[in-house]
Design goal:
- It is built from six helices and twelve strands.
- By secondary structure, the protein is α+β, with helices and mostly antiparallel strands.
- It has one domain.
- The strands form two sheets. Strands 3, 4, 5, 6, 7, 8, 9, 10, 11 and 12 form a ten-stranded mixed sheet that branches. A two-stranded antiparallel sheet has the order 1-2.
- It is globular.
């Protein structure tokens, strides 16, 4: 069912004698799209399209032309989901780089791909870089497994555990994420774990949620990759093997 039919269905169930006009439908559809963008990008979203990029960027120091990236904003919509396994020709119409990606990552099947518009800004809110990236999402019974890709336009310092593979350095990291409502006051335990770099706290959710996150970050050619497991609980060796699978793939 497409979004137009979903809206009409909802309206008909609410008031059987009302048939939405095209103008009303368009207005509601625009509102739904905006809400989808927020929900997909917000910390309360179930699929959290922007989360992998944000997590992989934490702790990275970026220098471009004397400026430093201190914030990153991403925009995406569920309406842009690619629900079939895309070809490079299809992706070339959306992004300006050629990432490697696989239809089956370990034992996990491809679910969908989603592009996002990104802006990186310095401390004075000047836009340093703009680009479109794409992430590949895989089906899991629980949690989130995604391969986020972006053009590697700058150098980043990574705090993860370095692993050498075929002339590339992969950085593995594992940390807990605590999503909290606005106004949440950090506990003594929160502060202690944050000082040890064992916890990141993100504001914006409706309730307190604790998530386990593991990721592998690497650069291959002119593309940066971040393979992220949030609450799937994939063993470290298996997650690293998946990253190596992407590196070895010929889908480029």
């Amino acid at each position: 069912m497409n979004i137009d039919n979903e809206i009409k269905d909802a309206l008909n169930k609410k008031a059987l004698n009302i048939s939405p006009s095209d103008a009303m439908l368009g207005s509601i559809k625009n509102s739904v799209e905006k809400e989808n963008i927020y929900m997909r990008k917000g910390f309360t979203a179930k699929r959290m399209i922007a989360l992998c990029a944000a997590i992989c960027a934490i702790g990275a120091v970026t220098a471009i032309g004397g400026g430093k990236v201190v914030s990153m904003t991403a925009y995406s919509s569920r309406l842009d989901d690619i629900t079939h396994f895309p070809t490079q020709a299809e992706l070339s119409k959306i992004i300006d780089y050629s990432p490697k990606y696989v239809e089956k990552l370990g034992k996990y099947e491809f679910d969908f791909a989603n592009p996002a518009e990104n802006e990186e800004k310095d401390a004075d809110s000047n836009i340093i870089n703009k680009y479109t990236d794409i992430s590949f999402w895989y089906k899991t019974d629980n949690g989130i497994l995604t391969l986020a890709t972006k053009p590697d336009t700058h150098t980043e310092e990574n705090d993860g555990e370095p692993i050498e593979y075929k002339g590339k350095t992969l950085y593995y990291s594992s940390i807990k994420y605590k999503f909290v409502p606005p106004g949440y006051e950090l506990t003594a335990e929160d502060k202690e774990l944050m000082d040890k770099k064992e916890l990141e706290v993100s504001y914006g959710s409706q309730e307190v949620e604790l998530k386990d996150n593991s990721s592998v970050l690497w650069v291959d050619g002119d593309v940066q990759y971040c393979l992220m497991d949030m609450d799937v609980h994939i063993p470290k060796d298996e997650l690293i093997a998946m990253a190596k699978q992407v590196i070895d793939s010929d889908c480029k």
